[in-house]
Structures are given as structure tokens and as C-alpha cells.
Amino acid sequence: MSFSHLGLSDKVLAAVAATGYTTPTPIQEQAIPHVLARRDVLGIAQTGTGKTAAFVLPMLTMLEKGRARARMPRTLILEPTRELAAQVKENFDKYGIGQKLNVALLIGGVSFGDQDSKLTRGVDVLIATPGRLLDHTERGGLLLTGVELLVIDEADRMLDMGFIPDIERVCKLVPFTRQTLFFTATMPPEISRISQDFLHNPERIEVSKPATTATGVSQFQVRGGREVHEKREILRRLLRDAKDLQNAIIFCNRKREVAVVYKSLQKHGFSVGALHGDMDQSARTAALDQFRKGDIPLLVASDVAARGLDIPAVSHVFNFDVPHHADDYVHRIGRTGRAGRAGTAISIVSPLDSKSIAAIERLIGQTIPAAEGDYAVQSVSSDETDQPREHRSRDGSREGSRGGRKPRREREPRAAKGADKTDKRSDKSEREPRHAKGASRSAGPQPQAAAAAFVPPAPAQPSRVPSIGRPEPRRAARDAESEPADHSHLPAFLLRPVRARV
Ligand code: AMP
Q: Could you list the residue range(s) of the whole structural domain that residue 455 is in?
């Protein structure tokens, strides 16, 4: 099957040919004719399957006829994060070459004024995160009554991020007669329910079973790391030992952990960048660009920031934290082994993660084998980043979070973070799923800091000191997206150490 059999226009076929793609991927082959026939489509496909082009190419063909009117976009694409929205825009730029289409991005972190003037000029394709889109409609600067085609991308991630009510509101603002394309990587019951609400007699296209992992990915787990500094040491050893490591994404569950792991790796001589939802847009873009270009081979990331990003040829994925939701595991390891390439995914499984890893194994229908090699960690590192509950003062002395001055990031005024003050809703568009509140924006590293060459130091000699155990924290506390505790407001008796009964 070639692209020319799918009903795409000559201009679009020429643009596809220019990219060098000769054969449509399964989702493209199956979805494009239905999209062109104006059918609703329910696409169940992981990222990396070519699903973006599966809607971008037919949209470009359909948009060749007709003109946009001021403030009334003809088509609307909803994405959960700014990066994904920007990535879809890149697809329109790539495949829409030679067409005079107005493509606008409505994402947080960009001034309303610029977005507004773009809307005034008339938009053929509007790509938006739900929060910023609704901000514009509420201000009266945007009418969705002219939308002929609506794309809801990464629907399961939208669910995770709490965007479904926003999507429902958007769906009420677009005409009932619109065409809807709905893409999701997994099909939990809630997504199944809303897909029935949003779609009319859809063509269901499933290119791989929901929640299956790419076959080219070798998966391993390393047990250990009850204490978080132990996990960092295990991670360093894994990075040093990894065979054929070209580049890697290291996933953490929390934004704060992203910042800590980033700093720790940097301190240990690795060339590394970071990506999480609270970094400002320019830092996120810069980190991603550096990683894509290969300037930095390692990227520490949170799920939201990394979801669905098109980063070709990632050789390794490391789960510094086992994700709490089994679906996220599938997405994370989907960053490697893309487009038929081989990849490796290694998860560091602490004793607290037993239930999560069991749920993952149930979901993917296989047992994840132990990685070869001895990664049991015995030594206790004393470097600054391995002591996240302490902060260095300017004179270099350590400050506990309890006493004296507050950590610097707590003293920084909120307004100084570069975001548009009116962009409250867009912050929501960028939040981490479920436990986002309270994380510090300044916890994110700046991209220029990650310039050192990637020269992994020699493997550390394991010492004989046993790891230090402590009672398992309650799940809620473990999940919380909290900063290092500032206990200054607590009565002293609550701060006395308590001996746990084992
Ligand atoms: P996506 O699933 O949309 O994130 O796409 C994953 C990657 O596949 C992107 O790098 C695309 O450029 C690439 N891609 C899309 N369509 C094709 C195709 N027909 N043949 C080869 N690669 C493709």
C-alpha cells in the first residue's frame, strides 16, 4: 500500500514524498480514507505509530477548499500539553508546505495579545490546550461555531490530567454536526464512556492492542533503592553499564524528583537535561531541542512533559520511579523501540513499588525479568543533591528545612516566573497528573546548565555497608507532590522523632 491510494491531494502527497516516507503506517492506512470520507474515527494507537500524520494529512487535504473567517477556526485540535501541541503544529508545517494555511497555537506561557491577533486574521487549524482555549472563548475573542472537524488527541492523558470536564465544555461550543477524531493509547472504561458521548457512529481503528508494549523493547527491572539516594546510585550504575546507550529518557513520578535527579546526575558528570511541567516554556523547548539534536544524551522527565513527544531513536528508557498507573508504564517505554528500532527499558523497583510493578506486569501480560548485574546499593552518598531535605546557604553551609532561613525557592516571588499573569488556566493545562499542586517552578533546571560532555565516570566500587531501611510511608504521603517539608509552623512535640514498631 502506498500513500497515493489513500485519497490524499497531490500537494499533500508531494509533501509526504519530500519527507521520504513511502509507506503509510497501519493507523494511517486505516484512518485516512475514513477521515476523508468525513466519518468520525476512534483511533486506539500508541504514540510512535504515526498517528499524528493520520489526522494531519487528511485534514490538509480537506482544508485545501474553503477559507477561514476571523475568530472562527475551521478545525480544532485539542492536546494535553504545550509540547504536544507544538509538535502537531510542526507536522502541519512539514506536510502543509506549499499550502497557505493559517495554523495557530493556543497554549499557555505565550501572551494573549499575539494569540488574539492571530485569531483575528482567521485560522484554518487551531491547535490548543483546553485551558487556554476556554480562556479565549470566555474573553469573547474566539467562536467555535465554525469548527467542522474536532480532533481530541491523547484522550487518556486528558483524563489523567482532569481535562475531561473542559473537553465536555468545548464539545458544547462546537457544532453538533462536526466531524470528530478521537485518539487514545489506552481504553479505560471512562474513556470508553466519553468516546460514546463525543463520537457519532465512529469507525473504530485499533492498531495495537490497548496497553501492549512495543515488541522491540527489552524490558528489565532492578530491585532495590528503598531510600531515594540509593535509587540515584543504582541509576548511575545502570547508565554507566548500559550497552549501546545512545540516549535515554529517565522518568520520575514527581516534578520535584525530576529536578533532584537532574542535579544529581549533573553533579556526577553526566550530560543531562530536564523536562517537567513547571519549567517555563522556553526552558522546556530548549531542553527538548538539545535532546533531539543529541547535544545532551540524557533527559530526566516527568510523564506530562514527555507524553507523546516525538523524539526519534531513543535507545533507553529508565524508570527512576515505577509509575503509579500501569498505563503510564506503557507510554514511557513507548519512547524507545519506535518505528521498529530496538530499545531497552529498565525500571528501578523499590520495595514500595511491589504493587505497582505487579499491576504493570498484569497489564502488559508478561513478567519483567531482572537486569543482569549486581545493582544492590550499599554506600551512602553525601553529596548535596543526594541530601534533598537540606539546602546549602550562600556561604556553603547546610541548612535544614526546619531551621533558620527557608530554602531559596520558597523565598522567590511567584510573579517572577515569566508566565503570563492572566494565564491561570494554562497552568492547569501544564500541571502534572493528579498530584501536581504545590510544586515549585524554580525547581526546574535551566537548559544551559546541561552542557557538559557525556563522559560517564568509572563504575563505583560497591561497599559493604547495608542499606538503611525505614517504615513504609503511607501511600498518600508517597504520592504527594510536596516540597521538602518546612516544619517551622508545627509545635515542637510533633517534630520529635518517633520510633516505629516493626
Ligand atoms: P507519531 O506517532 O505521530 O508521534 O509519529 C511517530 C514518528 O513516526 C514521527 O517521527 C513521524 O515523523 C514518523 N512517521 C510518521 N509517518 C510515518 C511513515 N509513514 N513512515 C515512517 N515514519 C513515519
A: 432-461+469-482
